[in-house]
Structures are given as C-alpha cells and as structure tokens.
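Hey, resending since the last one bounced:
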Amino acid sequence: MQEKMLHTLFASAALWAAVLAAGAQTSPPLPAEIDPAIVEYGAARERIGANLKAALEQCEKQVEPARAVCIKEAQGRQKIALAELDHQRSPSDANARRLAETRVAVNYDIAREKCNERQGGDKAACLSRASEEESKARAVVKTGQ
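The structure tokens again:
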C-alpha cells in the first residue's frame, strides 16, 4: 500500500517537473518580434488615460456645478480621443461613423450637463434645444454628410 502511494507521489512529482520545465522554456518574444504599432497604440491609450486623470484633478478644484461640466468635458475628450485613435489605427467607414457618433454623443452629454445648472422652464427649454441639436447631428451622421 505504501509502495503504491510512493509510486503515485513520484509520478505526480515527475509530471509537475516536466510541466515546469516546459513552461520555463517558453519566453516572452524578443523586442524585435514585437510589433511597434501595437506598442505605439498602447502608449497612446496610456497617454489618453493620463490626460483624463490630469483633467479630472483640475476639475476637482472647481465648485459645483462647474465641476460636473468639467468632468463631462474631460470624459468626453477621452472618448473622442479613443475613437480618433481607433480610426487612425484602422481607418474605415465604420470607424469614421463611430467617431462622428461619439462626437455627437459627447456634445449632447455636455449640453445636458450645462442645462442642469438652470432652473424651471429655462432648464426644460435648454434640454429641448440640446435634444433637437443632437437629433439633427445624428441625422447628419446617418446620411454620411
């Protein structure tokens, strides 16, 4: 019985040793094998994230309601920058349309946030104007002009 357990233990240890040895033989690709476009894309995404972080830190210094508008604008700049980056990386009609749609959505979000500063009927009229402008802009994007 003990002999069987020892045999099983040694067999599993040998298996683990083989697995670890095989894993040790696979190494990350050499720097020459890494696509520079991928590295550049990753660096650009990191810069966009760093820009957002810096902008949000500036927004925190402001008082409400300007802070909320500042945050929406910073987040909007990030969304647009990411959409532009994707379009630059792989230009296509679909990516151009996504970029245009992102711009429309960001402009609408910022306009709505600015409307939230207002009161009563003025706020309702502002939201209505923002919605109308968004509808017109979406129609332009849809027709491709």
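The chain has a mean pLDDT of 82.

Sorry for the duplicate.
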